[in-house]
Amino acid sequence: MALLRCSKFQIDKVYSRAVNMPTFLKKLMNITGMSEQWVTVRIKQKEGSKCIPWKSLKDSILTHPEVRKKVDVFALSIYGLVIFPKALGHVDEAVTDLFDRLDKRVTPILAILAETFRLLSACRKVGEGRFIGCAQLLLSWFHSHF
After folding, report:
1. Locate the DUF7745 domain: which residues (predicted)?
2. Does residue 55 share a domain with residue 29?
3. Residue 66 is part of which domain span?
4. For residue 12, is it within any domain?
5. Could you count the other beta carbons within 10 Å of the beta carbon of residue 57?
6. CA nearest neighbour of 25 among 115, 88, 100
7. Are 127 and 88 part of one and the same domain?
8. Residue among 145, 143, 137, 138 at smallest CA distance from 121
9. Which one-letter DSSP state was computed for residue 19?
């Protein structure tokens, strides 16, 4: 949605969640290495989904004793703020889903491309929104795969 600047198309996503996915709380606990109480206090509701403020993640990066967890939280923050921004200054639940899947070596690339293609088609049909990503790269990928 951020890539297309078209906020109306959130229903009927191409990808689906697995049945026994851990909750947002459990994923954040696993990624950050923080306690359930620490995570629960920091979870917010923003833009229609659960999220955690970037400031809380930043504080975790600066104070966490484990270097591996610092790196994980930093990577999650980058994904949430730069690659998949939804709520300004917050990292939302969808980003933790993606990050959790990457950690398990499950690649989301096909789902992201399919979702981008679906949203591009939907935007074209209603005549609003515009693609601000690298159109040449996306076109090159489609030509090489179809």
Report:
1. 13-145
2. yes
3. 24-103
4. no
5. 22
6. 100
7. no
8. 138
9. T
Tokens 């696993």 found at: 30
Q: Which long-range contacts (CB under 8 A, 24 or more apart) does 38-45 make?
A: 44/90
Residue 30 lies in a domain: yes
Element (H, E) at 50: strand 49-53
Residue pLDDT, tens place only, 120-144: 777 777 777 666 566 666 666 667 6
Q: Which two tokens stand for residue 136?
A: 């040449």
Q: Which residue has the tokens 């906020």?
A: 7
pTM of the full structure: 0.59
Is residue 84 domain-resident?
yes
pLDDT at 4 exceeding the cut of 60: no
List pLDDT tens digits, range 80-132: 877 667 777 888 887 887 777 776 776 666 666 666 777 777 777 777 766 65
| 116-125 contacts at long range (C-beta below 8 A, 24 or more positions apart) | 116/3, 116/4, 117/142, 118/9, 118/14, 119/1, 119/4, 119/6, 119/9, 120/4, 122/6, 122/8, 122/9, 123/4, 123/6, 123/9
What is the number of domains present in the chain? Answer: 2
CB 10 within 8 A of CB 86: no
